[in-house]
Amino acid sequence: MSSPRSAAPPLIELQNVTVVRGERVALDRLTLSIAVGEHVGILGPNGSGKSSLIKAITRECWPRYTPEGALVRLLGRDRWHVWDLRTLLGIVTNDLMQTCTRDVSGRELILSGFFSSVELCPWHEVTAEMQRKTGEVLDLLEIPHLAGRMMTELSSGEARRVLIARALVHDPQALILDEPTNSLDFHAQRELREIFRKLAQAGTSIILVTHHLPDIIPEIGRVILIKQGRVFGDGAKAEMLRKEVLSPLFGGPVDVLERDGYYHLW
Hints:
six-stranded mixed sheet
């Protein structure tokens, strides 16, 4: 379950954030806050602004200026050195997945996370401690067998695990996962969700952005609903994942089934 809210600065805080991409308003005066240690699902239909929200957090998209002001803060700060951010947030997105699909081995890609690159360069000095940590995350995610294989040879599920390992080399406080089970078959989806549960139970905060209800693992206690760039709902998972709430979110009648801590939509 999610950790209780505290008086400490939020891990992530957005206030009155508007993001325009091209001619489209992707985020519209969006405000939300996520506490340290909290496991959160961010759910919304395609085009609702979920990916833009991640890009606002990672500073790939900057909020539009408004007279009321807009804030994006991490642990109470709006300015960070990029190297310091690596120990705060681990990011796994589909854009990064495409970038990292190249002729490098799984081990090399994980090691590249120490240098904020996607491959090792001649000037990168790989230390024994980096090698040890790489072995540790390979074991944690149960993928030592992928260390020597090329990223271009891996299945989508295998590649996703290697990318998660790369995000974990700095022991980040939180892991942000963008549509993590896209393009995976049923078996790979189940395996990946078990990995997320393992990480959550080990103390890594999971912030999972998705439009698939089954991605919201049992450890997630809070769900934020996003529609048309705004917060549509925010509360306890059992309250948010009801057909009365999700039908207007997805723009049509739906039914919801809960089984073994997972929710399913049809």
